Amino acid sequence: MMSVVGAQPFIKPMQSPSVSPIQRRHTLPASEVRPLNTQDAISVFEIEREAFISVSGECPLHLDEVRHFLTLCPELSMGWFEEGRLVAFIIGSLWDQDRLTTEALTLHKPCGSTVHIHVLAVHRTFRQQGKGPILMWRYLQYLRCLPNVRRAMLMCEDFLIPFYRKSGFKVLGRCAITVANLTFTEMWYPISGHAYMRRNSEAIRFPQHPLTLPLPKTDEHVDV
């Protein structure tokens, strides 16, 4: 089974040189990135439903499936919170085959070396701000800290291919999975090397490995 000891991301509250007494009453960090848990499931599903139903008519994960993966492998999820409110998220699970099959939609394979990214979604209020690419970048950096992970895979509709290519994903081919009348393309990303992160209020920190790297510039035309 994959070991994730010492690889859990956490966030430090934003620090200000001078903080007024009124500001000190606020206990929620301005920005936080952390793994999701089952208590986040309803917020996750509400964002997902709004993001996908209006576009494709189908959700990648139903509410019970969201809870399922957040119970089995919460360490493969990541949520971006602004003042305690979920604004973007990713949910993944482990897979043990070269290509995705229908089973990959519902199963978590603990001995697998591929992370199947089921869904990336951004709250409608926070779209077109680059949050999708930034969260994906952080997630891929986090996966580099998991010793048994060798690649990430996802399936997407064709109009999203340019979006994921800008995050470094490559087209693998047509996906064997269909949902209703929807067809998909499989994409993959190699996981190797070490993770980098920034030591600021929006950085993921990995204990014992304090490295820094600026956030990537985003020039995306598609945001999810």
From TrEMBL:
One of its GO terms (biological process) is circadian rhythm. The keyword Phosphoprotein applies. Its main location: cytoplasm. InterPro entries: Acyl_CoA_acyltransferase, GNAT_dom, SNAT-like. Pathway: Aromatic compound metabolism; melatonin biosynthesis; melatonin from serotonin: step 1/2. Belongs to the acetyltransferase family. AANAT subfamily. This is Serotonin N-acetyltransferase.
